[in-house]
Design brief:
Largest sheet: 2 strands, antiparallel
Number of strands: 4
Strand order of the largest sheet: 1-2
Distance between the termini: 69 Å
Strand content: under 5%
Order of helices and strands: HHHHEHHHHHHHEEEHH
Number of helices: 13
Helix content: 55-70%
Low-confidence stretches: 1-5
Mean pLDDT: 92
Shape: globular
Structural class: mainly alpha
Length: about 325
């Protein structure tokens, strides 16, 4: 008699996911009660339980998840999340699209908060993406295949470069282009380097990943703004031309930036993986090993970069301390 495997729907939600539900509930209650430390660090206290819960839900359905299946890839994702988000903080020094208010005055606590908060960006987006994929959303969508001709690559590369230059030259008018420039610039390069590529997927008639990432970006965008709105230490926006109609702190039109931002994060991280500087987090993507020397140097350079940009954020992007 053939032995039946365990049904995935009968698999229990892992204990760490149950703990995450409890942690998120406690954070919400303590925020409502106006506990000071929770008000100051609510973003962190909300996002890390969400990430762990999403991972547990993925594991329950698939028997695999980024944390349990690729723990070193997940750790790599965390550190590079800080580094790559700080690239956008550097752009914001010119754009001046957002500012932080009511941050703790103690530098050690504040910089620790920066690190833990910015480290959630990639895990939040990609755990949400995998959860959407696990639920089967858009999995059946197909498109007409086409050949990626050199002219397509050249147009994408040049357009991406222009999209990153114009916001620096004329930030008042071209600030939205920051949220798409790296996709157009780097994704064709990823394809040439035989790495994961959204353009390559779409050319093969399989646009599901791009669609799922776009959905992930919108879901995370809504949660970012929802949880940020209720916190004491948070960010506010100063975005030109988008009007005063807001949902939470974000002008409504600003939400259009979150879906392409998810694509951008995916492409940027894969570029780093193609160079052998980061570890892939996806289940079926092979790892390009880095030499021992680089594995020591890269984290040291990243941390030095973090401290440098943290100091710039303190001087230029934080509007108030307490």
């Amino acid at each position: 008699m053939r032995r039946l495997g365990k049904n995935k729907n009968s698999r229990l939600l892992p204990g760490y996911a149950l703990a995450a539900i409890a942690a998120l509930a406690v954070a919400e209650i303590f925020l409502f009660l106006k506990i000071p430390i929770v008000q100051d660090y609510f973003y962190i206290l909300a996002w890390w339980p969400y990430i762990i819960l999403a991972d547990g839900l993925i594991y329950k359905q698939r028997g695999w998840s980024p944390i349990k299946g690729r723990p070193f890839g997940f750790l790599s994702l965390i550190t590079w999340s800080v580094t790559i988000w700080l690239v956008f903080e550097l752009f914001n020094l010119r754009l001046q699209n957002w500012h932080y208010i009511q941050l703790v005055s103690n530098p050690l606590l504040r910089w620790s908060g920066y690190t833990l908060a910015f480290a959630t960006v990639f895990p939040a987006l990609f755990e949400t993406y995998y959860l959407i994929k696990t639920l089967g959303i858009s999995e059946q969508i197909r498109s007409r295949p086409f050949t990626i001709k050199p002219i397509i690559e050249r147009i994408s590369l040049s357009t991406g470069l222009i999209c990153l230059i114009l916001p620096i030259v004329l930030p008042k008018y071209f600030f939205p282009l920051v949220w798409i420039g790296f996709v157009l610039l780097l994704d064709p390069i990823n394809a040439r380097m035989k790495g994961p590529s959204l353009l390559k997927d779409i050319s093969n008639g399989t646009p599901q990943k791009a669609i799922q990432l776009l959905i992930s970006g919108m879901i995370c965008g809504l949660l970012w703004e929802f949880w940020n709105f209720w916190a004491k230490s948070k960010w506010i926006y100063t975005i030109p031309f988008v009007g005063d109609l807001k949902l939470f702190e974000m002008p409504v039109l600003g939400f259009l930036g979150f879906p392409p931002f998810a694509l951008e994060c995916y492409v940027m991280y894969n570029s780093i993986c193609c160079l052998g500087l980061a570890i892939p987090w996806e289940q079926k993507i092979s790892n390009k090993k880095m030499c021992k020397g680089i594995s020591v140097i890269v984290p040291a350079v990243q941390i030095a970069f973090w401290f440098f940009v943290f100091s710039l954020i303190d001087k230029n992007t934080v509007s108030s301390f307490h």
